[in-house]
Amino acid sequence: MPVLDQTMRRHNGVARMTTLQREGHTRHLLRRAISDGRLERIRPGWVCVPGADRELVTAARTGSVLTCVTQARRLGLWVLHEDEPHVATDPHGSTPRIDGRLHWALPPVRRHPDAITDPIENVLVLVAACQPHEAALAVWESALRMGAVSKDALARLPLTAHARRLLREAMITADSGLETIVHDRLHWLGVRIVPQAWVEGHRVDFLIGDRLVVQIDGGTHVGAQRNADNAHDAALMLRGYHVIRIGYRQVIDDWAGVQDVIVRAVAQNLHRRAA
């Protein structure tokens, strides 16, 4: 007979009673586990282990599925903003009582009755419908970069026009969602922009034209990392490159200021090799 603790770990601590019985655990054993405190009832037909993931427990309790940016964040994808839990439910079923954003769309990948989290394909399709273009593009590129799904697999799904646009535009060269957003906001300039370019033996976030380097600082650019970045900036400038270094909050809260600096640099031909 399978060990109940191992089975519950395989189900991430939350499971349907009928599934546990199907996997070899008797009703008597399950009732005893509940009586002993090894399992807790969530709602009729569902149980969890003490201390189970609260998001999974809530999904099971409400009869919903974690999806969109909530599940994207749980999968380790780059998410710009998640102001509330995003869940999905059967479009033909009853409305669950939840505190968050409820998605009703019919998913491209059918959900198993036991599912309380959406597969990556459903997550990306709902992100495309729910999020602004650049935020959605950042999630899509993050998923492709991590190898969570392939472009070919996505192309075979019945995608909306916007989702197909995201699929066309998505690249795996950006190192983070922040770089995705910057690249998307600068493409109108009409100059060559190379993300993650190798320059003088180091990788830079963006090389605009031949000589303009744009570096984006995230939360790790402190201490030794900051010192190394400063040294690389100095080496680049000694070799005739121009470096613009910007931070996360500048991109998110002061894009107009960032864009103004870059546009002025291009206007002054700082992106061109000296004649």
From TrEMBL:
Name of the protein described by the UniProt record: DUF559 domain-containing protein
SUPFAM superfamilies: Restriction endonuclease-like (SSF52980)
Alphabetical list of Pfam families matching this protein: DUF559 (PF04480)
Taxonomic superkingdom: Bacteria
Stretches assigned to the DUF559 domain: 161-266
Cross-referenced Gene3D superfamilies: VSR Endonuclease
InterPro entries: DUF559, Restrct_endonuc-II-like
